[in-house]
Amino acid sequence: MHPAADLDRDDPAALRWIAEQVAVEAAGHLRGLPPPRQAGAGDSVRTKSSPTDVVTAADTAVEALLRARLGELCPGETVFGEEGGGDPAAAHWVLDPIDGTVNYLYGLPWYAVSVAAVRGGVTVAGAVVEPVSGRVWSAAAGAGATCDGRPLGVGAVTELGQSLIGTGFSYRAERRARQASLMAGMLPRVRDIRRAGSSALDICSVAAGRLDGYLEHGLQWWDWAAAGLIAREAGALVRVPGPTGSAAPDDGLGADATLVAAPGIADALAELAREYGAAEV
């Protein structure tokens, strides 16, 4: 264990340790909170961008804990989080206190705490922790990715028709319909499609070879900041929007598309998405 005072905050390995420590602590805190109420009941649940985009009291409590611990371990560093905001252009840390809040709200186990260390707008270390299972996914730039200390590696699939693909959907009804149309077109051309409800865990699943690819439009920086590095360090090809939502290259996938895939099917998956209208989603 690193003494906090001796940590080099420019060393990705040290930043990985910090991300792991605070994410594990936050996940433990989340496990100890009372179970969330049923959807729409009481003042423990509110909504943001739409009636289906929920925030629980636990989201804000967990982010407050993460910010407090990072303030102790990394005083003076700027934090940007889903619930508490901040200055993304100056961010040293990017937080998602509960990725998969709807799953958490309904008692489904697929949600995670995500912590990314950022330098110059680029993730250099990160951790994604599953409160229910206790799994710890993490990576440091140039040092590989692990789950509970075991090295991760993407799948070896080379046939798109044999690939299992993950996705997710917008909270806005009109965009959800376009996403559903895209997936309906793609579905006959792949093995199958999964929608688990946590983008961070889906991206980590590509890193572990549990999924062969993942495609979703409209993700925010906090959704993929840590998981994207984990997947990249595990050998995945990772295409994300700019760190603060700036337009991606004109590659026909749509400016806010996130695509993470095993190298053997990445190009074919991107071409399939273009064929069925990804740029219009």
From TrEMBL:
<feature type="binding site">
    <location>
        <position position="96"/>
    </location>
    <ligand>
        <name>Mg(2+)</name>
    </ligand>
</feature>
<keyword id="KW-0479">Metal-binding</keyword>
<keyword id="KW-0460">Magnesium</keyword>
<dbReference type="GO" id="GO:0046872">
    <property type="term" value="F:metal ion binding"/>
</dbReference>
<dbReference type="GO" id="GO:0046854">
    <property type="term" value="P:phosphatidylinositol phosphate biosynthetic process"/>
</dbReference>
<dbReference type="GO" id="GO:0007165">
    <property type="term" value="P:signal transduction"/>
</dbReference>
<dbReference type="GO" id="GO:0006020">
    <property type="term" value="P:inositol metabolic process"/>
</dbReference>
<dbReference type="InterPro" id="IPR020583">
    <property type="entry name" value="Inositol_monoP_metal-BS"/>
</dbReference>
<feature type="binding site">
    <location>
        <position position="98"/>
    </location>
    <ligand>
        <name>Mg(2+)</name>
    </ligand>
</feature>
<dbReference type="Pfam" id="PF00459">
    <property type="entry name" value="Inositol_P"/>
</dbReference>
<protein>
    <recommendedName>
        <fullName>Inositol-1-monophosphatase</fullName>
        <ecNumber>3.1.3.25</ecNumber>
    </recommendedName>
</protein>
<feature type="binding site">
    <location>
        <position position="99"/>
    </location>
    <ligand>
        <name>Mg(2+)</name>
    </ligand>
</feature>
<dbReference type="GO" id="GO:0008934">
    <property type="term" value="F:inositol monophosphate 1-phosphatase activity"/>
</dbReference>
<feature type="binding site">
    <location>
        <position position="82"/>
    </location>
    <ligand>
        <name>Mg(2+)</name>
    </ligand>
</feature>
<keyword id="KW-0378">Hydrolase</keyword>
<dbReference type="InterPro" id="IPR000760">
    <property type="entry name" value="Inositol_monophosphatase-like"/>
</dbReference>
<dbReference type="InterPro" id="IPR020550">
    <property type="entry name" value="Inositol_monophosphatase_CS"/>
</dbReference>
<comment type="similarity">
    <text>Belongs to the inositol monophosphatase superfamily.</text>
</comment>
<feature type="region of interest" description="Disordered">
    <location>
        <begin position="30"/>
        <end position="53"/>
    </location>
</feature>
<feature type="binding site">
    <location>
        <position position="223"/>
    </location>
    <ligand>
        <name>Mg(2+)</name>
    </ligand>
</feature>
<dbReference type="InterPro" id="IPR033942">
    <property type="entry name" value="IMPase"/>
</dbReference>
